[in-house]
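Task: sequence design from structure.
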Protein backbone atom coordinates (compact mmCIF):
# COMPACT_ATOMS: atom_id res chain seq x y z
CA UNK A 1 0.00 0.00 0.00
CA UNK A 2 2.81 2.38 0.92
CA UNK A 3 4.63 1.79 -2.39
CA UNK A 4 1.47 2.66 -4.31
CA UNK A 5 1.15 5.91 -2.38
CA UNK A 6 4.73 6.94 -3.08
CA UNK A 7 4.50 6.07 -6.78
CA UNK A 8 1.27 8.00 -7.22
CA UNK A 9 2.71 11.08 -5.51
CA UNK A 10 5.81 10.83 -7.69
CA UNK A 11 3.65 10.74 -10.80
CA UNK A 12 1.92 13.95 -9.71
CA UNK A 13 5.26 15.64 -9.05
CA UNK A 14 6.63 14.52 -12.41
CA UNK A 15 3.51 15.83 -14.15
CA UNK A 16 3.86 19.22 -12.47
CA UNK A 17 7.51 19.42 -13.54
CA UNK A 18 6.50 18.60 -17.12
CA UNK A 19 3.81 21.30 -17.15
CA UNK A 20 6.20 23.88 -15.68
CA UNK A 21 8.76 22.99 -18.35
CA UNK A 22 6.12 23.55 -21.02
CA UNK A 23 5.38 27.04 -19.72
CA UNK A 24 9.08 27.85 -19.48
CA UNK A 25 9.58 26.77 -23.10
CA UNK A 26 6.91 29.24 -24.24
CA UNK A 27 8.40 32.20 -22.35
CA UNK A 28 11.92 31.27 -23.47
CA UNK A 29 10.79 31.29 -27.11
CA UNK A 30 9.17 34.71 -26.70
CA UNK A 31 12.38 36.12 -25.17
CA UNK A 32 14.52 34.53 -27.88
CA UNK A 33 12.39 36.18 -30.57
CA UNK A 34 12.54 39.51 -28.71
CA UNK A 35 8.77 39.76 -28.43
CA UNK A 36 6.87 41.49 -25.63
CA UNK A 37 3.62 39.52 -25.94
CA UNK A 38 2.45 35.98 -26.56
CA UNK A 39 0.58 35.26 -29.74
CA UNK A 40 -2.94 33.82 -29.59
CA UNK A 41 -1.82 30.20 -29.82
CA UNK A 42 0.90 30.63 -27.20
CA UNK A 43 -1.49 32.44 -24.87
CA UNK A 44 -4.08 29.66 -25.09
CA UNK A 45 -1.44 26.98 -24.48
CA UNK A 46 0.09 28.94 -21.57
CA UNK A 47 -3.32 29.29 -19.92
CA UNK A 48 -4.05 25.58 -20.39
CA UNK A 49 -0.70 24.64 -18.83
CA UNK A 50 -1.34 27.01 -15.91
CA UNK A 51 -4.74 25.45 -15.26
CA UNK A 52 -3.13 22.02 -15.30
CA UNK A 53 -0.51 23.14 -12.78
CA UNK A 54 -3.25 24.54 -10.53
CA UNK A 55 -5.05 21.20 -10.57
CA UNK A 56 -1.87 19.22 -9.82
CA UNK A 57 -0.92 21.58 -6.98
CA UNK A 58 -4.39 21.17 -5.55
CA UNK A 59 -4.12 17.37 -5.64
CA UNK A 60 -0.61 17.31 -4.15
CA UNK A 61 -1.66 19.61 -1.31
CA UNK A 62 -4.76 17.50 -0.70
CA UNK A 63 -2.53 14.44 -0.57
CA UNK A 64 -0.22 15.87 2.09
CA UNK A 65 -2.95 17.47 4.19
CA UNK A 66 -4.98 14.28 4.26
CA UNK A 67 -2.01 12.48 5.82
CA UNK A 68 -2.06 9.67 3.28
CA UNK A 69 1.73 9.68 3.16
CA UNK A 70 1.86 9.14 6.93
CA UNK A 71 -0.44 6.46 8.43
CA UNK A 72 -0.42 8.06 11.89
CA UNK A 73 -1.25 11.50 10.53
CA UNK A 74 -3.91 9.92 8.32
CA UNK A 75 -5.72 8.55 11.36
CA UNK A 76 -5.26 11.72 13.40
CA UNK A 77 -6.66 13.90 10.62
CA UNK A 78 -10.02 12.05 10.77
CA UNK A 79 -9.87 11.60 7.02
CA UNK A 80 -10.74 15.23 6.23
CA UNK A 81 -9.48 16.90 3.05
CA UNK A 82 -8.65 20.60 2.75
CA UNK A 83 -8.38 23.09 -0.06
CA UNK A 84 -5.02 24.13 -1.47
CA UNK A 85 -4.40 27.83 -0.91
CA UNK A 86 -0.77 27.73 -1.95
CA UNK A 87 -1.20 26.84 -5.61
CA UNK A 88 0.37 28.80 -8.40
CA UNK A 89 -2.79 30.85 -9.03
CA UNK A 90 -3.28 31.91 -5.39
CA UNK A 91 -6.57 33.36 -6.54
CA UNK A 92 -9.79 34.50 -4.95
CA UNK A 93 -11.47 31.11 -5.32
CA UNK A 94 -8.72 29.43 -3.30
CA UNK A 95 -9.03 32.02 -0.52
CA UNK A 96 -12.80 31.67 -0.61
CA UNK A 97 -12.48 27.92 -0.18
CA UNK A 98 -10.33 28.41 2.90
CA UNK A 99 -12.82 30.96 4.21
CA UNK A 100 -15.73 28.58 3.79
CA UNK A 101 -13.86 25.91 5.72
CA UNK A 102 -13.20 28.43 8.49
CA UNK A 103 -16.93 29.23 8.66
CA UNK A 104 -17.69 25.58 9.31
CA UNK A 105 -18.65 24.72 5.76
CA UNK A 106 -19.04 21.22 4.40
CA UNK A 107 -16.00 18.96 4.59
CA UNK A 108 -15.91 15.79 2.51
CA UNK A 109 -14.48 12.54 3.84
CA UNK A 110 -11.82 10.55 2.07
CA UNK A 111 -13.21 7.14 1.22
CA UNK A 112 -10.36 5.86 -0.93
CA UNK A 113 -6.61 6.12 -1.10
CA UNK A 114 -6.72 6.76 -4.84
CA UNK A 115 -6.58 10.28 -6.22
CA UNK A 116 -7.02 9.24 -9.84
CA UNK A 117 -10.78 8.62 -9.70
CA UNK A 118 -12.61 10.70 -12.33
CA UNK A 119 -14.73 13.63 -11.16
CA UNK A 120 -18.48 13.26 -11.33
CA UNK A 121 -18.62 16.51 -13.31
CA UNK A 122 -16.05 18.13 -15.54
CA UNK A 123 -13.96 20.76 -13.72
CA UNK A 124 -14.24 23.20 -16.63
CA UNK A 125 -17.23 25.19 -17.81
CA UNK A 126 -17.67 26.29 -21.43
CA UNK A 127 -18.61 29.93 -20.90
CA UNK A 128 -21.05 31.68 -23.19
CA UNK A 129 -19.31 34.19 -25.50
CA UNK A 130 -19.14 37.84 -24.50
CA UNK A 131 -18.95 40.99 -26.65
CA UNK A 132 -15.65 42.72 -27.28
CA UNK A 133 -14.57 45.11 -24.57
CA UNK A 134 -15.16 48.83 -24.90
CA UNK A 135 -13.64 49.57 -21.52
CA UNK A 136 -10.10 49.13 -22.90
CA UNK A 137 -10.56 52.48 -24.65
CA UNK A 138 -11.13 54.26 -21.34
CA UNK A 139 -7.51 54.91 -20.45
CA UNK A 140 -8.16 58.05 -18.36
CA UNK A 141 -8.87 56.84 -14.82
CA UNK A 142 -8.61 58.57 -11.47
CA UNK A 143 -8.90 57.07 -8.01
CA UNK A 144 -11.26 58.66 -5.48
CA UNK A 145 -9.63 58.53 -2.06
CA UNK A 146 -11.90 60.84 -0.03
CA UNK A 147 -15.48 59.79 -0.60
CA UNK A 148 -17.63 59.24 -3.66
CA UNK A 149 -17.99 62.87 -4.86
CA UNK A 150 -15.78 64.40 -7.54
CA UNK A 151 -15.55 67.63 -9.51
CA UNK A 152 -13.82 68.46 -12.78
CA UNK A 153 -13.69 71.27 -15.33
CA UNK A 154 -15.33 70.81 -18.72
CA UNK A 155 -14.33 72.99 -21.68
CA UNK A 156 -17.39 74.40 -23.46
CA UNK A 157 -16.02 77.24 -25.64
CA UNK A 158 -12.80 77.73 -27.58
CA UNK A 159 -12.55 80.86 -29.72
CA UNK A 160 -8.98 81.65 -30.72
CA UNK A 161 -8.39 85.26 -31.75
CA UNK A 162 -4.62 85.21 -32.14
CA UNK A 163 -3.51 87.46 -35.04
CA UNK A 164 -0.69 89.76 -36.08
CA UNK A 165 -0.55 92.83 -33.81
CA UNK A 166 0.97 96.21 -34.65
CA UNK A 167 3.21 98.07 -32.24
CA UNK A 168 1.32 99.68 -29.34
CA UNK A 169 -1.98 98.12 -30.48
CA UNK A 170 -4.20 96.13 -28.14
CA UNK A 171 -3.90 92.40 -28.42
CA UNK A 172 -7.02 90.41 -29.37
CA UNK A 173 -8.61 88.35 -26.62
CA UNK A 174 -9.36 84.67 -27.11
CA UNK A 175 -12.20 82.97 -25.28
CA UNK A 176 -11.73 79.67 -23.53
CA UNK A 177 -14.64 78.79 -21.28
CA UNK A 178 -14.72 75.99 -18.75
CA UNK A 179 -17.51 75.08 -16.35
CA UNK A 180 -17.26 73.03 -13.15
CA UNK A 181 -19.08 69.71 -13.24
CA UNK A 182 -19.80 67.60 -10.17
CA UNK A 183 -20.61 63.92 -9.97
CA UNK A 184 -20.52 60.90 -7.72
CA UNK A 185 -19.44 57.29 -7.99
CA UNK A 186 -22.29 54.78 -8.03
CA UNK A 187 -22.41 51.11 -7.10
CA UNK A 188 -22.58 48.61 -9.95
CA UNK A 189 -23.30 45.17 -8.51
CA UNK A 190 -25.09 41.85 -8.86
CA UNK A 191 -25.53 38.57 -6.98
CA UNK A 192 -25.14 34.98 -8.07
CA UNK A 193 -27.60 32.23 -7.38
CA UNK A 194 -26.80 29.86 -4.54
CA UNK A 195 -23.72 27.77 -5.36
CA UNK A 196 -23.12 24.40 -3.63
CA UNK A 197 -20.24 24.80 -1.20
CA UNK A 198 -18.75 21.52 -2.36
CA UNK A 199 -17.70 23.27 -5.58
CA UNK A 200 -15.08 25.19 -3.59
CA UNK A 201 -13.74 21.90 -2.28
CA UNK A 202 -14.12 19.64 -5.31
CA UNK A 203 -14.23 21.81 -8.44
CA UNK A 204 -12.29 25.04 -8.12
CA UNK A 205 -12.29 25.48 -11.90
CA UNK A 206 -16.06 25.91 -11.74
CA UNK A 207 -15.56 28.62 -9.14
CA UNK A 208 -12.91 30.32 -11.28
CA UNK A 209 -15.42 30.36 -14.15
CA UNK A 210 -18.14 31.82 -11.92
CA UNK A 211 -15.72 34.42 -10.57
CA UNK A 212 -14.98 35.55 -14.12
CA UNK A 213 -18.68 35.62 -15.06
CA UNK A 214 -19.50 37.81 -12.07
CA UNK A 215 -16.75 40.33 -12.85
CA UNK A 216 -17.55 40.42 -16.56
CA UNK A 217 -21.20 41.08 -15.70
CA UNK A 218 -20.25 44.22 -13.80
CA UNK A 219 -18.08 45.38 -16.71
CA UNK A 220 -21.02 44.83 -19.08
CA UNK A 221 -23.12 47.12 -16.90
CA UNK A 222 -20.39 49.76 -16.74
CA UNK A 223 -19.99 49.83 -20.52
CA UNK A 224 -23.73 50.23 -21.05
CA UNK A 225 -23.77 53.09 -18.56
CA UNK A 226 -20.80 54.81 -20.22
CA UNK A 227 -22.62 54.77 -23.57
CA UNK A 228 -26.34 54.82 -22.79
CA UNK A 229 -26.62 55.92 -19.15
CA UNK A 230 -29.49 58.39 -18.70
CA UNK A 231 -27.99 60.40 -15.84
CA UNK A 232 -31.36 60.11 -14.06
CA UNK A 233 -31.40 58.92 -10.46
CA UNK A 234 -28.40 56.75 -9.73
CA UNK A 235 -27.63 56.15 -13.41
CA UNK A 236 -24.40 57.50 -14.85
CA UNK A 237 -24.54 59.93 -17.75
CA UNK A 238 -23.53 58.27 -21.01
CA UNK A 239 -21.95 59.60 -24.19
CA UNK A 240 -25.33 59.51 -25.96
CA UNK A 241 -27.01 61.64 -23.26
CA UNK A 242 -24.44 64.28 -22.30
CA UNK A 243 -24.91 67.78 -23.70
CA UNK A 244 -22.35 69.17 -26.13
CA UNK A 245 -21.44 66.14 -28.22
CA UNK A 246 -20.94 66.57 -31.97
CA UNK A 247 -24.10 65.41 -33.75
CA UNK A 248 -23.68 63.98 -37.26
CA UNK A 249 -26.79 63.24 -39.31
CA UNK A 250 -27.47 60.81 -42.13
CA UNK A 251 -25.70 61.94 -45.31
CA UNK A 252 -27.53 59.78 -47.85
CA UNK A 253 -25.40 56.64 -47.71
CA UNK A 254 -23.38 54.77 -45.14
CA UNK A 255 -19.90 55.64 -46.41
CA UNK A 256 -20.61 59.36 -46.78
CA UNK A 257 -22.16 59.51 -43.31
CA UNK A 258 -19.21 57.85 -41.61
CA UNK A 259 -16.70 60.02 -43.46
CA UNK A 260 -18.60 63.20 -42.56
CA UNK A 261 -18.18 62.33 -38.88
CA UNK A 262 -14.43 62.17 -39.32
CA UNK A 263 -14.55 65.51 -41.13
CA UNK A 264 -16.59 67.12 -38.36
CA UNK A 265 -14.03 66.19 -35.71
CA UNK A 266 -11.10 67.22 -37.90
CA UNK A 267 -12.67 70.66 -38.38
CA UNK A 268 -13.00 70.90 -34.60
CA UNK A 269 -9.29 69.99 -34.22
CA UNK A 270 -10.17 66.74 -32.46
CA UNK A 271 -7.93 63.73 -33.02
CA UNK A 272 -10.25 60.73 -32.71
CA UNK A 273 -8.70 57.43 -31.70
CA UNK A 274 -11.55 54.92 -32.01
CA UNK A 275 -14.84 54.06 -33.66
CA UNK A 276 -17.46 52.07 -31.74
CA UNK A 277 -20.28 50.35 -33.67
CA UNK A 278 -22.89 47.72 -33.00
CA UNK A 279 -22.17 44.39 -34.77
CA UNK A 280 -25.13 44.87 -37.13
CA UNK A 281 -23.82 48.25 -38.30
CA UNK A 282 -20.31 46.83 -38.73
CA UNK A 283 -21.89 44.17 -40.96
CA UNK A 284 -23.50 46.89 -43.08
CA UNK A 285 -20.06 48.35 -43.72
CA UNK A 286 -18.57 44.96 -44.55
CA UNK A 287 -21.39 44.02 -46.93
CA UNK A 288 -21.87 47.36 -48.71
CA UNK A 289 -21.60 46.94 -52.51
CA UNK A 290 -21.85 49.05 -55.63
CA UNK A 291 -23.00 48.19 -59.14
CA UNK A 292 -20.66 48.34 -62.13
CA UNK A 293 -22.25 48.91 -65.58
CA UNK A 294 -22.11 45.82 -67.79
CA UNK A 295 -20.65 47.94 -70.60
CA UNK A 296 -20.01 51.66 -71.14
CA UNK A 297 -23.33 53.46 -71.05
CA UNK A 298 -25.29 50.46 -69.77
CA UNK A 299 -26.77 49.88 -66.32
CA UNK A 300 -25.80 46.84 -64.30
CA UNK A 301 -28.33 43.99 -64.63
CA UNK A 302 -30.81 43.74 -61.81
CA UNK A 303 -29.85 41.29 -59.08
CA UNK A 304 -26.15 41.32 -59.92
CA UNK A 305 -24.39 43.37 -57.24
CA UNK A 306 -20.95 44.76 -57.84
CA UNK A 307 -17.85 44.30 -55.67
CA UNK A 308 -17.66 45.21 -52.01
CA UNK A 309 -16.98 48.87 -51.30
CA UNK A 310 -14.72 48.36 -48.29
CA UNK A 311 -12.23 45.80 -47.05
CA UNK A 312 -14.14 45.40 -43.79
CA UNK A 313 -14.71 47.33 -40.59
CA UNK A 314 -12.21 45.28 -38.57
CA UNK A 315 -9.92 44.08 -41.36
CA UNK A 316 -7.18 46.65 -41.22
CA UNK A 317 -7.12 50.13 -42.70
CA UNK A 318 -6.52 49.57 -46.42
CA UNK A 319 -9.38 50.39 -48.79
CA UNK A 320 -11.72 51.47 -46.00
CA UNK A 321 -9.25 54.00 -44.59
CA UNK A 322 -10.73 56.62 -46.91
CA UNK A 323 -13.96 56.33 -44.90
CA UNK A 324 -12.97 55.25 -41.40
CA UNK A 325 -9.59 56.95 -41.09
CA UNK A 326 -6.00 55.78 -40.83
CA UNK A 327 -4.19 53.34 -38.55
CA UNK A 328 -4.37 55.68 -35.55
CA UNK A 329 -8.13 55.10 -35.27
CA UNK A 330 -9.14 51.79 -33.70
CA UNK A 331 -12.34 50.01 -34.64
CA UNK A 332 -14.34 48.40 -31.85
CA UNK A 333 -17.51 46.33 -32.10
CA UNK A 334 -19.71 46.53 -29.01
CA UNK A 335 -23.33 45.74 -28.24
CA UNK A 336 -23.26 48.61 -25.74
CA UNK A 337 -23.82 50.91 -28.71
CA UNK A 338 -27.40 50.82 -30.06
CA UNK A 339 -28.10 49.68 -33.61
CA UNK A 340 -28.16 52.62 -36.04
CA UNK A 341 -25.70 54.75 -34.08
CA UNK A 342 -21.93 55.01 -34.37
CA UNK A 343 -19.58 56.85 -32.03
CA UNK A 344 -16.27 58.32 -33.17
CA UNK A 345 -14.19 60.13 -30.61
CA UNK A 346 -11.11 60.81 -28.59
CA UNK A 347 -11.78 58.40 -25.75
CA UNK A 348 -9.11 59.94 -23.54
CA UNK A 349 -11.62 62.77 -23.01
CA UNK A 350 -13.85 60.43 -21.02
CA UNK A 351 -12.61 59.69 -17.51
CA UNK A 352 -13.53 56.96 -15.04
CA UNK A 353 -13.52 57.99 -11.38
CA UNK A 354 -12.90 54.85 -9.35
CA UNK A 355 -13.88 54.80 -5.69
CA UNK A 356 -13.70 51.03 -5.34
CA UNK A 357 -12.09 48.55 -7.69
CA UNK A 358 -13.84 45.34 -8.66
CA UNK A 359 -14.63 43.32 -5.55
CA UNK A 360 -15.96 39.80 -4.99
CA UNK A 361 -17.62 38.77 -1.72
CA UNK A 362 -19.04 35.44 -0.59
CA UNK A 363 -21.75 34.68 1.97
CA UNK A 364 -22.53 31.19 3.28
CA UNK A 365 -24.57 32.30 6.30
CA UNK A 366 -28.30 32.67 6.95
CA UNK A 367 -30.51 30.75 4.55
CA UNK A 368 -27.43 29.58 2.66
CA UNK A 369 -26.21 27.79 5.80
CA UNK A 370 -29.34 25.62 5.83
CA UNK A 371 -28.71 24.12 2.40
CA UNK A 372 -24.91 24.26 2.16
CA UNK A 373 -24.75 26.95 -0.50
CA UNK A 374 -22.96 30.25 -0.88
CA UNK A 375 -23.88 33.45 -2.72
CA UNK A 376 -21.35 35.59 -4.57
CA UNK A 377 -21.56 39.34 -4.97
CA UNK A 378 -19.50 41.33 -7.46
CA UNK A 379 -19.41 45.10 -7.31
CA UNK A 380 -17.43 48.22 -7.98
CA UNK A 381 -18.01 51.95 -7.39
CA UNK A 382 -17.34 54.13 -10.40
CA UNK A 383 -18.25 57.56 -11.76
CA UNK A 384 -17.92 58.99 -15.28
CA UNK A 385 -16.59 62.40 -16.29
CA UNK A 386 -17.07 63.84 -19.78
CA UNK A 387 -14.09 66.17 -19.98
CA UNK A 388 -14.82 67.33 -23.53
CA UNK A 389 -18.17 66.14 -24.95
CA UNK A 390 -17.47 67.78 -28.33
CA UNK A 391 -14.62 65.29 -28.82
CA UNK A 392 -17.26 62.62 -29.52
CA UNK A 393 -19.24 62.46 -32.75
CA UNK A 394 -22.58 60.70 -32.36
CA UNK A 395 -23.45 59.49 -35.85
CA UNK A 396 -26.91 58.56 -37.11
CA UNK A 397 -26.63 55.65 -39.56
CA UNK A 398 -30.22 55.63 -40.82
CA UNK A 399 -32.47 58.14 -42.57
CA UNK A 400 -35.35 57.64 -40.12
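Answer:
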Amino acid sequence: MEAIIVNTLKELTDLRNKLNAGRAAITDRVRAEDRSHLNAGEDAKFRALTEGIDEVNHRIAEWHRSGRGNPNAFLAASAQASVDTSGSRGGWADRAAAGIQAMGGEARSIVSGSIDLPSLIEPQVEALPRPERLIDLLVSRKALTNGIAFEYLRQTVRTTAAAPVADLADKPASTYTMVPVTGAAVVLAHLSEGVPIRYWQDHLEVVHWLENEMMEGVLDSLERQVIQGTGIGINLEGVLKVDGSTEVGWAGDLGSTLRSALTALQVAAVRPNAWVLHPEDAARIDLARWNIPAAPGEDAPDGEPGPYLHDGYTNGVAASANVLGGPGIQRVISTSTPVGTAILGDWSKLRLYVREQMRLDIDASGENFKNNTATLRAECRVGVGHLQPAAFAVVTLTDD
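The chain has two domains: 2-117, 125-400.
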